[in-house]
Amino acid sequence: MLTLDAVHKNFGGIKATRDVSLDFPKGSLSAIIGPNGAGKTTLFNLISAQIAPSEGAITLDGASIVGRSRTEIVRAGVVRAFQVASLFPTLTAMQAMTAARVSYLGKSFGMWRPFDATLPPERAMEILALLDLGHAANTQVSALSHGDQKLLDIGLALAMEPRVLLLDEPTAGLGPQERWSMIEQIKEIWRALGLTIVFIEHDMDIVFATAQQIHVLVSGAVLASGTPDQVRGDQRVIDAYLGTALDEEKEAAQ
Questions:
Q1: 51 and 150, same domain (yes or no)
Q2: Are residues 176 and 244 in the same domain?
Q3: Where do the TM regions start and end (predicted)?
Q4: pLDDT at res. 15
Q5: How many C-beta atoms surround the C-beta of residue 85 within 10 A?
């Protein structure tokens, strides 16, 4: 469904990604892992048209998406939720969702008149219910917990009717129990909507318990790809990343 073929991104003399070739089949749930500076966020920036590749091809259902605007990428079905949520703090959760739906449906409101929050909210409420945020529909966004704000940010992405959902560190900043709750919500979204989901994550317990396929980036290049068992047993991955990552997690838990 989503394919990267020999993608390079250079920033001057710095090679942020090097010859990256990856395939994310329709309906798959994949994780991208690697040390800081490995090129994970750059990869998401390339897919979502935040930046353009220096070389290589990125295709969706066989059609190139390189050179398209960010709006066109979203319309094609590739939507991203960011590590740091960018929300509407003075709106309620329902109003924020409705605003996202209005934007996606092309019924954007003029700057000279207020947003019409009375537009049909059915789909917005469906998404809030899927995220277990129905209880917060009338709560101001700024009053939501950090975890609920991150869920709402994913909800805003879902309002764009994605076929491919990119999640940039969805559990960042959450406590241990909140992380597992978040990833269970993501798995429920995946099961309920049949999306292709790609997520960046540093918690290796979550990665190995969740992803069907794991892609390991090191120094901008793909070091390994495979099932959790294949990646866990790959000595190159252990030496380059997993050994250090697991040690850091153990220290954090102590």
A1: no
A2: yes
A3: none
A4: 93
A5: 18
**pLDDT of amino acid 6:** 98
What pLDDT is attached to residue 98?
A: 85
Q: Which domain holds residue 11?
A: 1-77+162-253
Intervals of the chain under pLDDT 70: 85, 107-121, 244-254
Instruction: Reduce the DSSP state of residue 206 to 3 states and report it.
Output: helix
Domain shared by 64 and 34, yes or no: yes
pLDDT of residue 252: 54
Confirm if 195 and 189 have CB atoms less than 8 A apart.
yes
Q: Is 69 helix (H, G, I), strand (E, B) or coil?
A: coil
pLDDT reported for residue 153:
93
Are residues 183 and 69 located together in one domain of the fold? yes
**pLDDT at position 248, please?**
57
At CB < 8 A and 24+ separation, what contacts does 219-223 make?
219/18, 219/37, 219/38, 219/39, 220/9, 220/15, 220/16, 220/17, 220/18, 220/20, 220/38, 220/39, 220/42, 221/17, 221/18, 221/19, 221/20, 221/39, 222/19, 222/20, 222/21, 222/22, 223/34
Residues 212 and 244 grouped into a single domain: yes
> Which residues have a Cβ under 8 Å from the Cβ of 8 and sit 6 or more positions away?
15, 17, 18, 19, 20, 53, 54, 55, 56
| DSSP bridge pairs for 226 | 214
Domain end residue (candidates: 159, 190, 212): 159
- Kindly report whether the global pTM for this prediction surpasses the value 0.85: yes
Indicate the residue among 159, 174, 197 that finishes a domain. 159
165-191 pLDDT, tens digit each: 999 999 999 999 999 999 999 999 999
Q: Indicate the SS3 state at residue 187.
A: helix
Are 176 and 248 contained in the same domain?
Answer: yes
